[in-house]
Amino acid sequence: MLSATEVWTRILDRARHELPEQTFKTWLEPTQAISVDEETIVVGSPDQFAADWNESKHAPLLTQLAPIAVGHPLNVVFRVQEDRKSRTQMDFFVAPPAEIRAPGQQKGASINAHLSERYTFDHFVIGKSNELAAAAAHAVAQAPGKAYNPLFLYGDTGIGKTHLMQAIAHEVFARRPEIRITFIGAEQFTNDMIGSIQNRAMHDFRRRYRETDLLLVDDVQFLKGKEATQEEFFHTFNALYEAGRQIVLTSDRPPSEIPGLEARLVSRFQWGMVADIELPELEHRIAILRNKALLDHLEHTIPEDVIRFIAEYVRSSVRELEGSIIKLLAYASLKHREITIDLARDALRDKIRLADPAALTGLTPQAIQMGVAREWGVTPEGLRSKTRTKALTAPRQVAMHFMRELLGMQLVEIGAAFGGRDHSTVIHSLDRVAAVTREDPAFAQRVGKLRAELEALAPGRAAVH
I need a surface site. Which of 174, 257, 353, 367 has the fewest CB within 10 A? Predict the structure, then answer.
């Protein structure tokens, strides 16, 4: 009797001749046979979307091909593979690499050390926007607990902070397989602490965290306002630091800009190296896309001119670049067309509209600055200046708020529109407008009125949230 893999291979050999090559590569190559009996073969897809798509679009054809391929009727059913649920989005469209064994499985001391195979230094593309952070991460991986301790990485969402953090863990683990590594989000640290309190197991909680050799905590901004968690984290930090064990932290803003964070934690987070990661420039975005194409065996599928086209218009995060590739592949498969610039323009038209000022029908950063300046009785030049008087600070913050909400601009782009302010200043401005809007009905009404006037400059265009 044929195995599930042998049966599926025979069916795929038939399907390859019935489906467009791009469709086959995108949707069927990443699948894997799970089980087979006399009536049904169960096939694993990388995620629920891919499983549903294959079930509706390809299962009927594959079921028809089964008698030809294996000599008897066989229903083809798609399911999500359990071991692929945690894989990155790009993996949905390519055959998976071999899973690595989490360092935490080597010793019981690690709590959550599942690491992505992709998040290594070899797969991290270095450019001007991240070279300092990458150099610091390499130094930490070479000499944990000695070079920079703690290492604090900050920047906007989706630009590589977690990648660098996990790359450190990969490198350290490769050098010292016996090491105890804890990779965790700040929210999970809080949840673990709450569970330990409820179960009267705080001694075990403290031992697990304070005896680890490498502590990596993602998104420490979520510690804000949690006094008990901050108290526990403070003592955990001290225990590890005094023992010479490495600590790596990430956040969407620098330590001094995290609201509700105790001063003693802010101080400790700044003891080592604080490095920011900015948005990638054009050449860096091209290099990132080329690397993705090479990594996922798409270099012959996505032409060079399409890569440049995407890099030109998708100017935000690495995650956004990755998402554009996924959307383009899905769109090409749906339309049964080869990937060209025209196809990319159709598939990514929403992103292109946001990136192209000519497509905004009058709603531009300059228009927002003019509208806000007129409402507050100041000048657009004043908003862009370095002056920090109260008369300019409030309207400047409102203008930043509208650029984020109505144009979907990235933090660094907004900062550049106001004289080169850094993204932490923009974050503070956005938080401030949100807070005052909640607390001051008159201010909220004023902002709402101005918003309606600005939206009128771009009829038919929905706001970006």
Answer: 174
Nearest partner of 250 among 155, 130, 168, 142, judged by Cα: 155
Q: Give percent above pLDDT 70 in the chain.
A: 88
- What's the alpha-carbon Rg for the chain, to the nearest Å? 26
**pLDDT higher than threshold 60 for residue 95:** no
- My answer on whether 206 and 302 are in the same domain is no
Model-wide pTM > 0.70: no
**The one-letter amino acid at 370:** M
Q: Is residue 92 part of a domain?
A: no
Written in H, E and C, the secondary structure of 156-220 is CCCCCHHHHHHHHHHHHHHHCCCCCEEEEEHHHHHHHHHHHHHCCCHHHHHHHHHCCCEEEEECH
Give the distance from CA 22 to its chain's centroid.
Answer: 26
Tokens of 379: 């000048």
- Examine residue 284 and state whether it is found in any structural domain, yes or no: no
Last residue of a domain, one of 277, 299, 326: 277
User: Is 76 found in the same domain as 8?
Assistant: yes
Residue type, 62: L
User: Domain range for residue 411?
Assistant: 359-455
Q: Quick one: which of 221, 224, 196, 220 has its CA closest to 208? A: 196
For residues 141 and 84, which has the higher predicted lDDT (pLDDT)?
A: 141
Q: How far out from the chain centre does Cα 106 lie? A: 28
Q: pLDDT at position 311, please?
A: 85
Q: Is residue 384 part of a domain?
A: yes
In the chain, how many domains are there?
A: 4
Q: Cα separation of 364 and 408, whole Å?
A: 11
**C-alpha to C-alpha distance for 364 and 337, rounded to whole angstroms:** 34
Query: What pLDDT score was predicted for residue 107?
Result: 42
Tokens of 377: 């009785």
Q: pLDDT digits over 360-387, tens only?
A: 446 788 889 988 988 888 888 889 888 8
Instruction: Let me know: does 324 contact 314? Beta carbons within 8 Å.
Output: yes
Q: Are residues 240 and 110 in the same domain?
A: yes
Using the predicted structure, report yes or no on whether residue 179 has a pLDDT greater than 90.
no
Angle between helices 304-313 and 282-295 (to 10 degrees): 130
Q: 338 in the Ramachandran plot: left (φ > 0), alpha (ψ -120 to 50) or beta?
A: beta
